Amino acid sequence: MPPRITAEVVEDSICDGVRITTIQYRAWRPILAEINTHGITARSARSTRAVPTKRLIAEVREAPFIPARWYENGPGMSGKAPLVGWRRAAAVAVWRLSALSAIASATALNWLGVHKQHAGRPLEPYMWVDGVITATDWENFFNLRISAHAQPEFQELAKEIKFALDTSDPVERTEHLPYVTEAERVTRGSAGAFLVSARRCAAVSYRPFTAKPSGAAWEEDVAKGLALLRDGHMSPFDHPALTTAGWRPCRFKEPWLPYRKTIPNEENPLGVKAPRA
User: Fold this and answer.
1) Higher-confidence residue: 263 or 17?
2) How many angstroms separate the CA atoms of 140 and 149, rounded?
């Protein structure tokens, strides 16, 4: 089945009437910049730099993103009159041709031995992206993105997220741990759980998370969570959250506090000095 814009609930929690939800989504890669403007949410997404260029080339060759809705050019940021007939067919053909050109460019760069941080970039207009987003307040997100003025592909994603939220029942609890299974909570408890959750959220940078069995995988994920902390990769620690009376103003509504905010000196936990230019 070819990729499509989707959203599904990973973790849905509620405490004192305040709901926090983590969503895993798939969307068109270029709207990632718009997703990242919503600072009230925690966000992680697949990175072009983290995926081998050969894999990205194969993905774009097999299933390039092609806009479903095309509009005539006009004033403003949003099209109004749908493009129809031969012009729409020609636009799709031109888009497919440009995707083939991007594949040829990425293939040549890869053959030349160029690192994936550059070799994969020509493919981005035709790529899908998997991401994780966590929030306690979606009102402004939906007001802006389920709108005729929004990018059509973002409209579709926002509608998918809203449907996922509307059809999910939050669980009453005091720890929000995306990707940590109920069985793991019972057998493992809280020890290491926040590290595991953050690491599994971070894994979306190179692949969508696939649940692994408990056992050795837990220790492995704890170690990788500690490595994230050691290297100062802090954004994945924004997804897991806990309730606290010592709540500080942050991206989530009280009483939910991102686990990141419990880490001393969380912006630079190891006190590493920036290198000189």
Assistant:
1) 17
2) 14
Closest C-alpha among 162, 138, 159 to residue 148: 159
- Check pLDDT > 80 for residue 200: yes
Q: Where are the beta strands (DSSP E) in 5-146?
A: 6-15, 18-28, 42-45, 128-135
Diameter of the chain by CA atoms?
A: 62
Which tokens go with 261?
């905010």
∠ CA 115-119-125, nearest 5°, is: 145
**Domain coordinates in residue numbering, the chain:** 173-262
Q: Is residue 30 within 8 Å of residue 124, measured between CB atoms? A: yes
Neighbours of 178 (CB within 10 A): 28
CA–CA gap between residue 148 and residue 80 (Å, rounded): 9
The token duo for 109 is 């760069």
From residue 201, how far is each of 44, 101, 102, 156, 166 by CA, in Å?
A: 7, 33, 30, 23, 23
**H or E element that contains 9:** strand 6-15
Distance CA 96, CA 92 (A): 6
pLDDT at 116 over 50: yes
Question: pTM of the full predicted structure?
Answer: 0.92
pLDDT tens-place string over residues 18-54:
999 999 999 999 999 999 999 999 999 999 999 999 9
Average pLDDT estimate for 250-264: 89
